[in-house]
Amino acid sequence: MVCLFIAAKKEESLLPDVSGLCSLMAHTYTKHQLLRMERKVLFALNFDLSYCPPLHLLLLLASVARCSATMVWMARYLLELSLLEGQCVVFLPVQLAGAALCLARQVLQECPTPEGEAAWCLASSIHVGSEATLLRIMHILASAAANFNSKETCATFIKFSSPETLQVSRHPGLNNAASLLGVCS
């Protein structure tokens, strides 16, 4: 409950009342105990609450690389699939974002403009890990995308098959994971 309270303080505009949190816990803890535990958690974290999620990094990289809306939605789809893959927890957010964008670029095979290609070179120069690491993540994401009909990924597939998301989960390039793997250019 304390972690939820801290997260709400960081992300929400309307904060939950401490008394309300205590009542949600059936008054197992008092307001004083809850606030004291908040202090302990913040001290344990050294007050470092500055986590940048992969989606924010993806949007930053895509902006620098001047990616099309379709490419951004495809990368977002692949990135969301990474949330369902236990193997992805060991990778840094920037590595997940970079691999999702790189794989999206391979799937869509859009013809880059000279300006877009220069921007992509700039974006790819941002350190996102070794090529081997990126290829490993891309393989995980490609496999997840190829298993779109699994029970775990069904909701994500449906979410990204809507017109608002440009129906990227239905792209034919996602059907064969093996064809997606290669060197990120």
From TrEMBL:
InterPro entries: Cyclin, Cyclin-like_sf, Cyclin_A/B-like, Cyclin_C-dom, Cyclin_N. This is Cyclin C-terminal domain-containing protein. Essential for the control of the cell cycle at the G2/M (mitosis) transition. Residues 52-174 form the Cyclin C-terminal domain. Keywords: Cyclin. Interacts with the CDK1 protein kinase to form a serine/threonine kinase holoenzyme complex also known as maturation promoting factor (MPF). The cyclin subunit imparts substrate specificity to the complex. PANTHER family: CYCLINS. Gene3D superfamilies: Cyclin-like. It holds the Pfam family Cyclin_C. It comes from Characodon lateralis.
